[in-house]
Recover the amino acids of this structure.
């Protein structure tokens, strides 16, 4: 479950200021994808809705496929499909 709050409500709840995502990253959210196609779809959806893809969908180490994007607030997201059949043992 992911809960999203308006900044003012979040600052009140956390009792601290929200990080300036243009100056750095405070967190990287990761999403497990069910397929390579889902990775590509999530990257496209992010870009179509104001996000910026900083890591285009690509193969990683021969058994993973992933991408990275920032949402409109500058938070970083990682999407990764892991093909367990190809995972090195």
């Amino acid at each position: 479950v992911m809960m999203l709050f308006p900044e003012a409500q979040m600052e009140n709840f956390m009792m601290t200021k929200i990080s300036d995502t243009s100056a750095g990253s405070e967190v990287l959210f990761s999403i497990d994808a069910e397929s390579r196609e889902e990775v590509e779809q999530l990257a496209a959806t992010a870009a179509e809705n104001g996000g910026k893809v900083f890591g285009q969908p690509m193969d990683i180490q021969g058994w993973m496929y992933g991408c990275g994007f920032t949402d409109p607030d500058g938070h970083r997201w990682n999407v990764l499909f892991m093909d367990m059949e190809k995972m090195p043992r």
